[in-house]
Amino acid sequence: MNKPKNLCRVCNSIIQNIFDFGEMPIANNLMLMDNETYIKNEYKYNMKIGVCINCSSLQIINVPKKELMFNDRYAYFASESKFMKNHFTKLGSKLMKLMNKEKDYILEIGCNDGIFLKSFADNNYKHVGIDASENVVEAAKNDKINAICKFFDEKTSLEILHSYGKAKFVVITNTMHHIENCQSVAKGIETLLDEDGILVIEDPYLLDMYKIGSIEQVYAEHNFIWSLHSYKTLFEKYSIKLFDVEHFDTHGGSMRYFFSKKNLKETNIMQKYINLELNNKIFDINTFIKFQKNCKKICKELYNFVVSKSKEGKIIAGYGATAKSATTLNYSNIDQNLISCIYDSTPFKIDKFTPGSHIQIRDAKLLSKDNPDYTILFAWNHKNEIIEKEKKSKTIWVEYIPELKLTYEN
Ligand code: TMP
Ligand code: ZN
After folding, report:
1. Which atom of ligand 1 sits closest to the CA of residue 80?
2. Which pLDDT does position 76 carry in this prediction?
3. What letter does residue 369 receive in the DSSP assignment?
4. Are 325 and 305 spatial neighbours (Cβ–Cβ below 8 Å)?
5. Does position 251 have pLDDT exceeding 70, yes or no?
6. Topology of domain 78-263, per CATH?
7. 166 phi and psi, to 5 degrees?
8. Which DSSP helix (H) or strand (E) runs through 197?
9. Domain 287-407 bears CATH identifier 3.40.50.720
10. Ligand nearest to the CA of 77
11. For residue 409, pLDDT beyond 50
12. What is the separation of C-alpha 143 from the centre of its chain, rounded to a whole number of angstroms?
């Protein structure tokens, strides 16, 4: 019998208070506009999110099939950001120091273009990367990374176990929240993680998302937003215990979680965040309702700004054809009639069109030549890096999170 659709995928409780976004495209499904039939048949799904007040997990109710999101056209190449490269190289250096080069290996689930495993490959540490999107795996392999193109689950974990044995480290950065079947992944990790091993997960953090009050972290690929409490609920079922966390400002606020099969003493910082989650009422449905209201306010403010400037005849562009902005643009009804183009440096994205809103993506190098009147910073999480890179441009930067703000107005 099929499980009813509105049960929490972490703890099986009933999901509360559904927030309906209407029809949404797949956020990374960039399009070539010369294919009219394809545009007419652009895949859309009804995006609804809800929160589980038993485990605090925020999740999309009906997630599109994973093959529609992760395939040979995956548009996100993590190494595009120097800052993120540096961020993950630092984690790599810490973990390498704890590895026995002869016998240990590290497994990364969702290795993307090899942003994290690159330093392991360069220093001849045993490593395996797994990712479901063929084009990013190709990029990783071209960088001499030992990468496999597959979805990770219980079954794949047995194949990896057979070939490589148990892993000293399992690392999952910005990927666990992509995976609908979190139970199968947790079971696979239980199979593969060494008794002395450590599981490291990092992804956008629920409390930060509530604090910013923006819906951008949620799109089909980001079908979960996790917290300490919801991760604890999931992994304790598989005897994997959370013992430490580290907070970062990346991607608008991320948490790095450390788990072990051993009963390691919980750190003070972990206790601090457990209490912070309770004090911020993550189990209270009103927190979710307040969040919902704020998301609507942010989208409305941005829409009103774009419409009023467009009526004045101003040229409005965007910067960063991010997956996040797909949610904002589509929910706010901002499309190619209001935004001239979005600048981005990712070669794969240039000259394609954004999903649903069909805005052309232009090479970021052209921004300082075009100098649009306003440029909306869709990649707001890379603000410092981008503004520094584009300091020659005379455009007025528009930030819209947590509220509308014009930067460097002349
Ligand atoms: P993200 O917020 O999901 O990391 O996506 C950031 C997007 O912004 C990605 O498409 C790459 C793009 N980008 C630039 O075009 N220039 C830059 O300097 C940076 C950091 C990102
Ligand atoms: Zn739950």
Report:
1. 11
2. 87
3. H
4. no
5. yes
6. Rossmann fold (3.40.50)
7. -85, 150
8. strand 193-204
9. yes
10. 1
11. no
12. 23
